[in-house]
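Onboarding guide, step 5: your first structure request.
Type a short instruction followed by the sequence, for example:

Predict the 3D structure of this protein.
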Amino acid sequence: MLRYFLIFFLFVSTSISNAEIKDKIVKNLKNTDNLDFKFEQNINGKIENGNCTIQYPKKIFCEYARSNNKILVSNGKSLVIKTRTSYYRYPLEKTPLNLILDKDYLISKIFELEERIVDKSLINFTIQEKDNEINIFFDDQTYDLVGWQNTDIYQNFNITFLSSIRKNRVLSKNLFEIPSQN
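The system replies with structure tokens like these:
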């Protein structure tokens, strides 16, 4: 009888701690209007880095370091990747960033999904949506979003890590304007 009680206790205490983790992540997301950070992105083994700002919902501006003046911008509807020599524009809804940049969507998914602890420091949720599998990672101490992993619209495997995260800063009103093609 004692053995069954201990198993039940372990199950209940694990469920409570899992619920607490989700509550802390959700509370942190709800209290975050925007964040800026340094990033390192690995796309099929090619590593790039730079700085990004996210403003919820669905806006992002990234400047890549040492890369032909490359920027990535979403105004919530379109996503543009621009360099000195190229310009690509996509409907945001056709990209995995449409889900990653939607904190209300992330919050709803967090409550539905089981979390995994990765490397004893990251909390991971795997989202399956249509043909997309997106892994979202949160820090187990701060409960901040610290990265994601997905396959992009060209079927490239993409891993993005965030660092030096700052939240709820005053942002320029025109930061998320889509740049012109020239």
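Each response can be followed by summary notes, for example: The chain has a mean pLDDT of 89.
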